[in-house]
Amino acid sequence: MSDQQPTLTNRQGHPISDNQSLRTVGERGPATLENYQFIEKITHFDRERIPERVVHARGAGAHGFFEPTGKVGDEPASKYTRAKIFNQLGAQTPIFLRFSTVIGGKESPETKRDPRGFAIKFKTVDGNWDLVGNNLKVFFIRDAVKFPDMVHAFKPDPVSNREEAWRFYDFIANHPESLHMVTWVKSPWGIPANYREMEGSGVNTYKLVNDQGVAHLCKFHFQPKQGVRNLTSEQAAEIQAKDYGHATRDLYDAIDRGDYPEWDMCVQLMTDDAHPELDFDPLDPTKRWPEDQFPLLKVGRIVLNRNPDNFFAEVEQSAFGTGVLVDGVDFSDDKLLQGRTLSYSDTQRYRVGPNYLQLPVNAPADNARARTNQRDGQMAFSVDDSGANKHINYEPSMLGGLKEAPRPRQDYHQWVEGHLGRYQTTRTMDDYKQAGERYRSFEDWERNDLVNNVGNDLKACPEPIQLRMVWHLLHCDEDYGRRVAQIAGIDVSKARDLPPLPGKPAPGQNRGGPTYTSGQREEAGKQETAPAK
Which has the closest alpha carbon to 59: 3, 154, 134? Predict the structure, then answer.
């Protein structure tokens, strides 16, 4: 990089010395509210488009229900969580599920290679719970401060208004943590055949909390009863030539004919601690929890059985936020989750309006109706029920109005201490291991599609990006890097001679975690359970 490059600042003109990390209490601690740089950056990003969503603009949705098993695997659900939604055996909780693509605009084709959004609004007896996830179990980044940069790199060039491969790979080449997600997205898993035949995942790490105030780290997953089916680039192109909205059509028609899509809802659990025995941080959303160590435990099922009556009112105006939780489900210190929790609801207040929760598709169920002292604002068309005395719109009061709910018998208290600062994750496996394992777990046709997609993309990239990407892929798996280089016409020996990225650990040097030889990586790849096809 040139020493003549201008210095990055915030909107106040303050120089930014660290644009990679939130301010947190210690390396693994929670983010703090006074993250001015992040708040300015993310809230501006949330307002970059109107009225279309900046991300997840193209979508489809349907109504349905969640039905719990009353268990987590073979054990009572109450052992892990006091959330009523999991403990009321046989009760059906209404849901609205919105599927989407991420980067494309509202009229973009649904055959686009892109992660798919999988956002569910559970209308529970304790109010709404939003689980905002994707079809894949990992993400590109692990710190929310990078989200605007990531989306800018993946969106069209601000000058030419064209999506460019070099922009995408320029970002990826500087973020080895993204290689795992890229290996998924550039394979056939990057183009699900439709919304019914794809997995869902909460991606981030949450916590389940029981009546005793004991917490467990948790990841949420959804396995389709219809099976999983993906498309190659050639198959997607054939569909796209005839239909830009094939997935929306498929979902609507299936529900209309009574062929209701269904998913098993599962969780992965581990105790609420740092887990130094693992070679990755369980709070890192760029990593999967190995299913042989942390199996998928069924907690219920979701079924979609009713199409929207009006697409705009229900699908376009449906609004989700990762901060919308119910008692018994809590936040972890996952830095991506912490940033999303501010960003998502802030986006909805801007895009739909401060009273977006008064819209029927977003409002809680009647048995958990909103009762707040919040008033007025743009497009207010109702007043929250504030109790018998409507003159009292504050709390506490001796004259009526609302009162606080009873506190849990045993509240959950997380001990937090550490030096306030900006930290990058250090106690993690190197960012190449799981990407290599994923490459080796694919079937031959999936590997072929992956290397052809990446290799052909790199043909359109400048040489520095080409060489760095091949360098990264060689460290994921020798065959992976070599085949991509061959397709793109890149000199493998020239790529192999590059030094590590400045400020990043060399592959295998985990800054606090164990290292792996190539043989150990190969063995780990064999042991991991291959994904369902």
Answer: 134
- CA 209 to chain centroid: 22
Strands (E), 348-496: 420-422
| Same-domain check for residues 303 and 164 | yes
Task: Quote the number of domains for the chain.
Answer: 2
- Point out the domain boundary residue: 368, 399, 417: 368
Residue 247 backbone dihedrals phi, psi, to 5 degrees: -70, -40
Most confident range (mean pLDDT) of 196-205, 343-352, 511-520 is 196-205
Coil/strand/helix, residue 292: coil
The residue whose two tokens read 């972890």 is 332
Is residue 392 predicted with pLDDT exceeding 50? Answer: yes
Same domain for 200 and 73, yes or no, is yes
Statement to judge: residues 363 and 429 lie in one domain: no
Q: Do residues 61 and 191 share a domain?
A: yes
Residue entry with tokens 């009162």 = 403
Helix (H, G, I), strand (E, B) or coil at 178: helix
Q: pLDDT category, 395, cuts 50, 70, 90? A: confident
CA distance 277 to 517: 18
Token pair recorded at residue 246: 């094939």
Residues spanned by the domain of 28: 23-368
Q: Is 418 helix (H, G, I), strand (E, B) or coil?
A: coil
40-54, 296-310, 336-350, 416-430 — which is least confidently predicted? 40-54
Q: Which of 99-113, 356-370, 515-529 has the lowest mean pLDDT?
A: 515-529
Tell me phi and psi for residue 60, to 5 degrees. Answer: -145, 160
- In this structure, the answer to whether residues 218 and 354 fall within a common structural domain is yes
What is the distance between the alpha carbons of residues 321 and 131, in angstroms, rounded to a whole number? 8
> What are the Cα distances from residue 532, in Å, to 13, 37, 229?
50, 42, 9
Q: Rounded to the nearest 5°, which phi and psi values hold at 278?
A: -90, 155
Domain of residue 353, CATH code: 2.40.180.10
* 287 part of a folded domain: yes
Please compute the mean of the pLDDT values over residues 263-292 and round it to a whole number: 95
Residue 6 counted as domain residue: no
Residue 344 assigned ligand-binding role: yes
The span from the CA of 521 to the CA of 441, in Å, is 12
The C-alpha atoms of residue 245 and residue 237 are separated, in whole angstroms, by 13
Residues identified as active-site: 56, 134
Average pLDDT over residues 406-417: 83
- The candidate with the shortest Cα–Cα distance to 435, out of 481, 476, 398, is 476
Residue 527 has pLDDT above 70, yes or no: no
145/153 Cα distance (integer angstroms): 14
- Residue 353: pLDDT band (50, 70, 90) is confident
pTM: 0.87
- Looking at residue 34, its amino acid is E
Q: What percent of the chain has pLDDT over 90?
A: 62
